[in-house]
Structures are given as structure tokens and as C-alpha cells.
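Hello support,

Our group uses your service weekly, and this is the first time we've seen a run hang past the timeout. The protein is Glycogen debranching N-terminal domain-containing protein. I'm not sure whether the cause is the sequence or the server load. Input pasted verbatim:
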Amino acid sequence: MTGTERVLTDRGTFAVAAADGSITGTRGATPDGLFVQDARHLSRWRLTADGAPLDVLTRDDARVVLTPPGTRDEPAPYTVVREQALAAGVLVERLTLLNNLARPVRARLELSVAADFADQFELRSDRRHYDKSDGVHESAAGPDGVAFRYRRGPDWDASTTVTAQPPPDAVRAADGEEGGQVLSWRLAVPAHGSREIALAVRAFAAHAGPPAEVTGAGGIATPATLHAHQAREAAEFTDAEPRPTESAGPAGLPGLAQAVDRGLADLAALRIPGVGPDGEPVSVPGAGIPWFLTLFGRDSLLTSLFALPYRPGLAAGTLAALAAAQGVTDDPARLEQPGRIPHELRHGELAHFRQVPYGRYYGSVDATPLFLVLLQAYTEATGDARLATRLEGHARAAVAWMFRDGGLDDHGWLVYTSDEQGGGLANQNWKDSAGAICFADGVQATGAIAVAEAQGYAYDALRRTAHLAEGVWHDVAFARRLESAARDLRRRFPEEFWLAEADFPALALDGGRRKVDALGSDAGHLLWSGLLDQDRAERVGRRLLRPDFFSGWGIRTLAAGQLPYHPLSYHRGCVWPHDNAVIALGLARHGLAAEARQVAEALVAAGRHHDWRLPEVMAGYGPDSHPAPVPYPHSCSPQAWAAATPLALLTALGGAPARPGPVRTGPAPTGRS
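Update from on-call engineer: The timeout came from a worker crash unrelated to the input. Re-ran successfully.
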């Protein structure tokens, strides 16, 4: 996203609008609209005055001040203040027309409105065609606004209603836009006086509960009321103990406290509702806006791990929600297998009709071991064994998946094969784009691929689950089996993965056990998981800070100078803050404090250029090419694991709070935070 949009979000609902608050139904890198459950419930929301568009005078997070065309000698007779706010499934707007003259004026305001109910996958410009010819669109004017409806098949029914106070003087069909409607008001405004119009857009998503109630005293609740309520809810999260910014000072890195504050605010906004194993409501971090505001296995797990020392409630909610969605059967269409933790959960039309596999998609090699890592880390960090006790069966099923379907038994490593032919992901590690796991000549690896970082996650998961088995579940035999498997994996890794000439681990092994020899940042994850011995870890850590890897804003996903490197490639040259956060934690683990600080300083410097919000991903160009980080054009903003990165940096620099006391038992925590 470019940063010029107005982005609003609340409990899984989000809206993206232009700087003036309008929605024009764009597609591509940054689609605008009101989105609920992966569907666009508002695709047009365009205001004109006396037939002309309005110019922006000024704007802030809460409002935008607009004016009709005017000149220096004849300035506009009136000004329009536009305020917008969001609640779950609802967009509220208040238009205030201010008369600038000492005489009455008349104005005609018109609002062009449409709802196309497009699925997010339709808007991503991936050149796919989705047949929705059996869908039925309807629109109808009412006494106080307009209603839109979309039906498909016997069980898909979504609608959007727009209500106004005062009601529009007229409603007509929009010219040249099928189903669009235009609401029109003719307003008489007294001298130096004002008139107001209150609007509420309510999205009724298919297979979802009703939108939030936004009635206020005498009518529609004001945007200011909603903003105040959301500010109180956010403050409960951002201001809770421990206060990370109080630790950022001792970390001694200027700007880190500001980045932590911004990250916490974004994490508060990205929280979405989820459901635990017993149907209980939980709160989890959605991955990012605009494409991924839903529960993602890998993203939500790493976000929760970064935030764990400071906001453990995120981990409790994430673990519960992922356990509830854990695989229970074999479904090749969505790669579900018993015990496997899902990659992503979707609720949109195309997922419902199985036109995309992502309704509940399990194409991830690393979400399952990361689930086990987080479960033990949560238990250790909080001193609370209740969740580990409650999720024992889920954890054992996850371990069984790693050995059976994950590949540890048959291949000796965690492996995956491409799901591209099935409409899914070509790669199933965090670098999941096509071509990301490549040889030095740029050729994508094929067959049963064993990516390096996933072996580190597996090692860590086996060791941590062994601790739970012995200390919480009291199953010593199971613990010994897992410890033995972890030791064997650590012993074999340098034998099969090490590139002797480069003195660096291979990116992966392909299906023929060939070393995939491109040099990638994934090696830094091995420091975090502890898979490498101290000597190799130090050599890898220092290698990642050499100029071909380190751009000045962070460590590139692929070292520059290699044939497949491209500074604007998603996973073959860009810089990802979360990737760097994992590496910084690994550097700190192995005593490479100066290197960890160098990574942290680079990321904080990048955040300074983005109002302290770290982008999801940056181009691989360094400060020698451009004095500010070059944006990646399809980056989400805000994005969860980027928002949590400053917390991970704080931990890497030694600012994490002390661990708690004795382990607690009793009812498991809810994860509502």
C-alpha cells in the first residue's frame, strides 16, 4: 500500500479509501472498499457537491476537510467536513456542510454508492477467472437510503444497506454503473451556519453474525463516539503491563520506543475474532491489510512469538484458534492431513464454493512445528501449564503429523511438494511464491523439498515438546523419543545441507537430495532455532551482515550478485522485517550482540521513514541507491509480524521482562486480549 490511503479497521472489518474518503472500486495492488469476511460490501462511495468533485484541504486520522472548486478572488461558498469510523461490519460517516458566507447558501450533495460483493481473490490481479455467472445482484431504494443484495446458490446470501439521516431527497440509478445508486440532498444552509448528514453502511456477510449496533442518541452514532470506544479498547491492549516502551530505553536504541508504540497500536487494530476448540471466542492477530486480515498459521504464530514476553494473550488466542482448525482427515484438495495446523482460513464466496482451496488451507510445512514451539514457549514464559494441558491431544497430533505426513519418518526431514497444479502454493515455507526456493542458476527446486529453516523449526519443536511431555504431561518415554529425534536431526543437518565452498547452509534439499545452492536469509532462522553448533552459527551470522546480504535497511532474502537476485522480487531479493527479527533473535541467542544491534538499527532507521510503522516488505535497494527505503508495491500495511518486529528487536537487545514464578494449573486461559 502507498500510505496515501485512509485505512480503517475493527474486529476483522476493514475499509480502504482514497485521501478524500472516497471509494472508487479499484482493483490490483491496493483495492479500495469496505471488506467483511473476504467480500467487498462497498465498492463505490463518491461524494460530489453541485455536480463537482471536492478538493482536500487537510486531513488527519479522524476527518478530512473538503472544498468545492474556487478561486483566490472567489473562494468556495462552503466547506465540507467528512468524518468516518468503522465498527464490526459497519461504516459510519458524518458530513458537515459549513457555510463560509454571511448569507444563506443552497448546496446539492450527491453520494454515488455501489456494492459489487467481489471476493478478495477476484481483486488480486492474478489472471485467474472465476465463474460466478449464477450470482444474482439486486439493488433497491428505500425511504432512508438504499439496499444491495447478492445471492448465489441456495445458501449464499449477502447484503449491504445504506441509511441516512436526514433521508435523501431523491435516489436514482447511477449512470453507466450496473446496480449503482445515487443519493441526493438539497440543503439550505443559514449564514455562517451548518447542516449535517449522518450515514451508516451495514454489511450483512453470508454465514456471519449481524453487524455491530451503531445507533446513538437520536439516530446514528457519530464517528467520534466510535473512535473513542475503539481508543479505549486499544488502550487496554497497548497500555497493559508490562510496558515494552519502558524497556526500550535500557535497550539504548534511539527510535525503538516509537517503533514499539506504533507496532503495539497496529497489533491492537489487527486483532480479529476467532473460535477455540470448545467454540469459545478468542482474539487473534490477523495477518495484514488489505489481503490477509484473517487467521494465518505461520503469520499469527510468529507474531505471537515476537509479542509473547509482552502480550501473551495473543499466543493463547492463536494457539486455541489454530487447535480448533487443526486437520482431522485427509483432504487432498486443501492439503488437510490429521494433526496438520492450517496455513490460512478464509470465509469468502470463492472459498465457500471451493473455487479456491483457501477456505481452510493446510499448505504449510512450518505452521505445525511453530505451533508446538509457541505452545511450549507460552508455557515457559507465563509459568502457566493449563493451556499445554488442555491442548495435549492437539500437540501430540501435531507431532504425529511431523513424523508421518510431514516427512520425518520417510525422508528424514520435513518436506513438501508443490501444490501449484491444485491451485495452491508452489512453495509451503514462508517464502511461498513460485520460484522462491531456487538453485544459484535461478531454477526452482522440485520434488519433495526440504527447506532449511523448517528443519530448524522441527528441531526446536521436538525439543520443546519433549519438555512439555516430561514436565507437564508426565510422559517420560515420549519425551525421550522426541529428544532422540531432535539430536539425530541436528547431527545430520550439516552432513546433508552444508555448502562447503560457500561455508553456508543450502537453501533446501530438492527431491533428489541435491543441495539447493542459492544463498538465502533462511540460514539466519537456524540460529534462532538452535539447529547449528556455536561455531557454524557465528560464521553464518557474520556472513549475513556482509554487503551482498545486508542492504543497510536489513538482510535481503537472497544475497545480491546471484543470478536469481532481484531487488523487487518478493522472496528473491526484498527485505522483510519479520525475517530480520527472527535473525536478530538468533544472533542474540549465540552472543552476536553487535550483529543483532546492527540489524535492529537498520530496521528502526527504516521505520523512521514510515512514521515508525515497519512495512511488511521493502525492496532490496540500500541507502547507497536511495536515501529512504524503496517500498515494495504489493506490501500490506499494517501487517502483523512487521508490527510485532520491534518487540522482537527489543527482546534481542535484552529488553524483555523477567520470567514469572511457579507454573500454574487450573482452567486454561481464554486468549481474549
